[in-house]
Design brief:
The complex is a heterodimer of chains A (about 625) and B (about 575). In chain A, about 40% of the residues lie in helices and about 15% in strands. By secondary structure, chain A is an alpha/beta fold. In chain A, the strands form 4 sheets. In chain A, strands 1-10-7-6-5-4-3-2 form an 8-stranded parallel beta sheet. An 8-stranded parallel beta sheet of chain A has the order 19-18-17-16-15-14-13-20, with helices on one face. A two-stranded antiparallel ribbon of chain A has the order 8-9. In chain A, helix 10 packs parallel to helix 11, helix 14 crosses helix 15 and helix 16 packs parallel to helix 17. The longest helix of chain A has 19 residues. Chain A starts with 10 loop residues before the first helix and ends with a helix. The chains are: A alpha/beta (about 625), B alpha/beta (about 575). At the A-B interface, strand 8, helix 14, helix 20, helix 21 and helix 22 of A face helix 1, strand 6, helix 14 and helix 16 of B.
């Protein structure tokens, strides 16, 4: 992200770049302290605070003014639950856009009344998590996407300066809300250059988001989205948040926001109480600004106008402090933790066994719909050393998208490994991505069916913030799969350029698969396959050092005995890693360290890889003479 | 040089060479023996041992062409159950699998029953089973029920909190061969003892089998055995109960008597040594006390726990009720070790740590995930908390509780036992004393998961769904413990002493935080009657918790505790 990025060009973003902004305090707490009646003011919808923009706009406006009066730079619209899903619980689903628009209009007029040239006031459109989470299976991505889109449309119509997707519990919910904002902006002919998107997640007392996601995983999963800031709000007070704010201050490459509760909430005798006083509350945030370069400070549950007043007095036009930010290593994530693409002294091991076309065991489990069995198979791969798990449910005659949902839903919660969503069908891939909160890798895109399908899959990577495997296959009617090093490199180059330049994918998120073809058939055409792959890998790695390179290794030994395959796969993989391969899709426990392979087996495997036949029969030349003895023994 | 290098044959083909090389090297992993290769008899046993329902009816139908139904049960199926018992006893089989075997056994018996000739007295025998008065714990007793019923006994399982008159009524009505009594609480041992005395009074000499976590083999086989006029036996687990019943019915109680006598003999030798050592130690202590000139009263000796700890500020005084907690907030605090090993009985047995870990991941975690979702989505668990803070001062071994509104007015007093040796610790020492002129703060909590989970467990049990019963019951108990842990964390945060908390939740189970939480009945505060005082202070009836006669909490999925902030406060024994 550079300062010239359109992301930083909106008035709100420019203000945030120059000084620390103060956000208002708790809307809910303020509303509950007013004397409002369920039947009259809430129109019979108890606890539906979003209806108040319709029934009691005066009360909402009063609260905005109260915070503006004491110096808040930004006020949040009263639209925390004004989306289709939440309002649907009160039979008000169709009001999502209308209530959101009204909430924005009320805040807009209040903010404008207080704005001066020196101190413009901003309106942030509040978008809460709702009551249903996708990861828990309470709702689906499409339903939530519509729900948030309706809300975002209203907020845009009402004139917000920024979206604030807040109190996020579930990464899928965040991704969905961000996409809804982008979709609504597009419908209104606008972009994040006009109305930026801010995200604030909730880290519970357990040290993770409600679904178990660490702040590191959240940052990795969200960093490819065009969001202006990432921060924390709710659940805990500033003391408990400090560790995570420090981390964001060190690694998040854009703005950081914080809106703590006034200490830990306590539900007592039916009332919620927050113990932290305004003084210590403001002091703690001062440390966040100075030490971690936090640019947007505010308060969540239990924070009163007095809390915000002391906060505003402390900030008082203070310049934004830019702290040194380290670069996050390119990674994918499970729902819980990140996994780096580049593994020290190893390669990224992608477990191959959850694949209906590659594993009979998996296929049988899928036929029996033995989901627990599939989870066990997945866990077993993690134990064997897999960093990432490939999931492929392509199976003719079954509903592949539905199978993908069933499998991914379970794996994301029960297995702590990022997923590689593998299918030839766009719909199946998308079904998986819509259930996986972490940052996945898509397997794969290629040009076999032309650029249209390639583009569709790149868009999925963009929409779901995923990494992407691209196979070196193109439209060539004779031999679509690249067999030579030249073709492998040429198609890789074309793919990388299109994915980055047309679709804006990050180079580090691309995995080129230069295709493993068997060398075990005895056909002359196949003899040089391994050699071509090694050569192609070298060239891709040299030209695109930031791109990942992966392959489906086992294909090289297709048709051989299992023991022979294990040896050949292991020897070949070692050569590939030396050539620059960064990842491989393998059966982790079947990869042998070279030291454990007997010398003669290793040597003949190398001959096979490098096609050490006599030149007269088309080989690369016989092996050196001193290798003779073992081979003779073997042939005897 | 015999090995002089020479060139490769021009026809050398590495692919052929490679294939040749592996000609005799085979894949690893031999194929598992197919069940079809087993004889009919072996298959019947295998169905029971593997807990395999698939194909059971076919095997039984085939067997009925050869054997009478009762022969199938007694000679083959029970033989399988015996193996299951042995595997369980030696830690090689996990309880849930035992229960699966029991379920298959029950299915088999149900399938065979219509074909059985009804002959009077053909049953193996009968027993009345009960959890004693004041005790609500029934899992052990229910396991005995399962195992005995599946081994041909008629079991009259009359439930929990049973008084002796109720038990005797059932016994007289059913003319059962024996009575089995169970209980988890220390107090239940006393109740068993009282029950045995009452049986003596009534001149009833029915054989009694006693079991449950609180009872030790030695106490049962020496003291209780001497006390009761009839026969009394210790049932370590359901399988020992089964063996005892088999012996009783076969008239072989003499064998059991001999075994007991032998055990006691071995023990008495060891005991002499211990007794001598103890006597010597007591003598030294008396001397020590005398030399201090305090007349030898142990209570006058205070431990050297620090007295200069700053008293945290209580966020409020008195008690408060908390509701509306999310289970997803509580679940991460479940101690999975306690759940998997303790409640669900997945023992490590002969597995290596890695194998056991893999076993837990593959077999147990999916169940855990499923139950978490089910209990949450079906609204079975209802977490509620009542907790609060009281101004306190210690007075010797006493802890004085003052009125939350008037900090000089004494309203209650706990008396805690003091270690007679070691560090002479006493819970009261962790608080500012009367002499210090300062008031200290005590936290009290009572948490519950509500009674619906008990009801669900009972329903599962009644439907013979034993595995689910075990899972559900265990989840209820450990969720309550998790809530207690979570709330203890909250209290530390409220007191401003949360800074010492380990960031890792499992570390919290090892008290990696400041202070301690003691539940009545713990070694440091064994007096269960403290619960009455806690009840007066907290009034947990507001969250649906009642005290039983033995000061246990009903519903069972509840727990209460003292929360102590002193950094030196950790678990100890008196």
């Amino acid at each position: 992200m550079t300062a010239n990025d359109p992301l930083f060009s909106s008035p709100f973003a420019r203000a945030l770049a120059s000084r620390v902004l103060v956000l208002d305090g708790a809307m809910g707490t303020s509303l509950y302290s007013r004397d409002l009646t369920v039947e009259g003011d809430y129109c019979g919808c108890e606890n539906c605070t979003d209806i108040l923009v319709d029934s009691r706009p005066d009360v909402v406006e009063d609260i905005h003014k109260e915070f503006l009066e004491i110096g808040a730079d930004c006020i949040e619209t009263n639209s925390f639950g004004a989306n289709t899903l939440v309002l649907g619980e009160f039979d008000l689903a169709e009001k999502a856009t209308e209530f959101s628009r009204k909430s924005a209009e009320i805040a807009r007029s209040a903010a404008d009344a207080y704005s001066t040239k020196d101190k413009p006031r901003f309106v942030m459109g509040s978008m809460g998590p709702g009551t249903k989470l996708i990861t828990l299976g309470n709702t689906t991505w499409p339903a939530m996407l519509d729900s948030y889109t309706n809300q975002a449309l209203g907020l845009i119509e009402g004139g917000v300066d920024a979206f604030l997707i807040e109190t996020c519990q579930d990464l899928l919910q965040v991704k969905c809300a961000v996409n809804a904002c982008l979709r609504a902006l597009e419908q209104k002919g606008k972009s994040v250059a006009d109305i930026p998107i801010c995200v604030s997640v909730t880290i519970e007392q357990t040290g993770t988001m409600l679904m178990g996601t660490s702040i590191e995983a959240a940052a990795h999963a969200l960093r490819r989205y065009p969001i202006l800031s990432l921060g924390l709000n709710c659940a805990t007070g500033p003391t408990e948040m400090a560790e995570y704010i420090q981390w964001l201050g060190k690694y998040w490459d854009r703005h950081v926001s914080v809106a703590p509760n006034a200490g830990l909430p306590v539900l007592v005798e039916g009332r919620t109480e927050y113990p932290l006083k305004p003084g210590p509350f403001a002091e703690a945030q001062q440390r966040f600004i100075e030490q971690s370069g936090v640019g947007l400070v505010g308060g969540c549950c239990g924070t009163t106008p007095e809390h915000i007043k002391q906060l505003a007095d402390m900030v008082n036009g203070r310049d934004a402090k830019r702290t040194e930010r380290a670069t996050l290593p390119p990674s994918c994530t499970s729902l819980y933790q990140p996994v780096e693409y580049r593994q020290d002294n190893s390669f990224l091991i992608v477990g191959e066994r959850c694949n209906a076309s590659g594993s009979r065991q998996f296929k049988r489990l899928l036929e029996a719909e033995d989901w627990d069995g599939i989870v066990a198979l997945a866990k077993n791969q993690v134990r064997e050393g897999s960093h990432v798990l490939d999931v492929n449910v392509d199976y003719a005659g079954r509903d592949n998208a539905s199978d993908m949902r069933e499998v991914v839903q379970r794996l994301v919660r029960q297995v702590d490994a990022p997923l590689m969503i593998d299918s030839t069908q766009v719909a199946t891939i998308e079904a998986g991505l819509q259930c996986a909160g972490g940052k996945c890798i898509i397997n794969s895109a290629n040009f076999e069916d032309g650029e249209e399908k390639f583009d569709q899959i790149c868009k999925l990577a963009k929409t779901y913030g995923a990494g992407l495997v691209i196979g070196t296959i193109d439209e060539d009617p004779e031999a679509a799969m690249a067999r030579t090093a030249d073709r492998k490199f040429a198609i890789a180059k074309r793919s990388i350029e299109r994915a980055t330049q047309v679709h804006g994918l990050d180079e580090t998120d691309i995995f080129i698969d230069p295709l493993v073809l068997p060398i075990s058939t005895g056909m002359d055409d196949d003899r040089r396959s391994a050699l071509a792959l090694i050569e192609g890998t070298k060239r891709i790695a040299e030209t695109f050092p930031n791109v990942q390179i992966t392959c489906g290794l086992s294909n090289v030994s297709f048709g051989l005995k299992p023991a022979a395959r294990q040896v050949l796969n292991s020897v070949f993989l070692d050569e590939l890693v030396k050539a620059g391969m960064t990842s491989a899709i393998v059966h982790a426990s079947k990869i042998l360290p070279l030291a454990k392979i007997e010398d003669d087996q290793k040597r003949v495997a190398m001959h096979l890889v490098y096609d050490k036949r006599d030149e007269s029969v088309g080989g690369t030349g016989l092996p050196a003479a001193d290798e003779q003895k073992t081979e003779e023994a073997a042939l005897a | 040089m015999p090995d002089s290098p020479h060139t490769y044959d021009k026809k050398y083909d590495p692919l052929q060479a490679f294939i040749e090389l592996f000609k005799d090297i085979d894949s690893v992993g031999a194929t598992a023996e197919e069940k079809k290769d087993l004889t009919l008899e072996e298959r019947l046993r295998a169905h029971i041992i593997d807990g395999e329902k698939e194909g059971l009816h076919d095997a039984l139908d085939e067997a009925m062409e050869k054997y009478k139904p009762l022969e199938i049960v007694n000679d083959h199926l029970l033989d399988g159950m015996k193996t299951v018992g042995e595997l369980f006893g030696s830690g090689q089989m996990q309880l849930p699998f035992v229960l699966q075997s029991a379920e298959v056994m029950k299915m088999a018996v149900a399938h065979l029953e219509p074909h059985m000739e009804k002959i009077e007295g053909e049953g193996k025998g009968s027993i009345v089973l009960a959890t004693v008065k004041g005790d609500v714990h029934d899992i052990g007793k229910n396991l005995v029920d399962i195992i005995l019923s599946n081994n041909g006994y008629t079991v009259h399982n009359i439930g929990i909190k049973q008084t002796l008159p109720q038990i005797l009524e059932a016994w007289k009505e059913t003319k059962a061969d024996a009575i089995g009594l169970s209980g988890l609480l220390v107090k239940s041992v006393t109740v068993m003892e009282e029950n045995l005395k009452e049986l003596n009074e009534q001149k009833i000499e029915v054989p009694v089998i006693l079991g449950g976590a609180a009872l030790t083999r030695h106490y049962c086989e020496s003291h209780l055995r001497d006390l009761y006029a009839g026969k009394v036996f210790y049932g370590k687990d359901a399988f020992e109960g089964l063996r005892t019943m088999d012996m009783l019915k076969a008239g072989k109680t003499g064998v059991l008597d001999e075994e007991i006598t032998e055990r006691l003999g071995k023990r008495s030798d060891a005991q002499k040594v211990v007794a001598e050592a103890r006597a010597k130690k007591a003598e030294q202590q008396d001397e020590f006390a005398a030399s201090k000139g305090d007349g030898g009263t142990a209570t006058a000796v205070r431990s050297n726990v620090a007295t200069d700890i700053d008293v945290p500020e209580a966020p409020f005084w008195g008690s408060r009720v908390v509701e509306g907690l999310s289970l997803d907030e509580i679940y991460p605090f479940i101690n999975t070790t306690a759940l998997f090993r303790g409640q669900w009985q997945f023992k490590k047995g002969s597995m290596s740590p890695e194998e056991y870990e893999a076993f837990l991941e593959d077999k147990v975690h999916p169940v855990f995930e499923r139950l978490k979702a089910q209990l949450r989505d079906n609204g079975v668990l209802h977490p509620r908390v009542v907790y609060g803070y009281w101004p306190v001062q210690s007075d010797g071994d006493d802890l004085i509780i003052f009125d939350p509104k008037d900090h000089d007015k004494e309203i209650e007093r706990f008396r805690f036992p003091r270690q007679t040796s070691s560090k002479k610790l006493c819970i009261a020492d962790f608080f500012k004393s009367v002499g210090s002129g300062q008031k200290d703060v005590l936290g009290l909590t009572c948490v519950t998961m509500g009674e619906d989970v008990s009801k669900l467990a009972k329903k599962l049990f009644d439907n013979n769904d034993f595995t689910e019963y075990l899972y559900t019951h265990g989840m209820g108990v450990e969720s309550a413990e998790a809530l207690a842990e979570l709330w203890h964390k909250r209290i530390r945060a409220e007191l401003g002493i949360g800074g010492d908390d380990s960031p890792k939740i499992p570390e919290l189970f090892r008290q990696k935080y400041r202070g301690s939480r003691y539940s009545p009945g713990y070694p440091a505060c064994p007096d269960m009657s403290d619960q009455e005082i806690i009840w007066r202070l907290l009034d947990p009836t507001r969250i649906g918790c009642q005290l039983t006669e033995n000061w246990q909490i009903d519903p069972e999925q509840s727990t209460s505790a003292f929360v102590v902030h002193h950094p030196e406060a950790k678990y100890f024994n008196v």
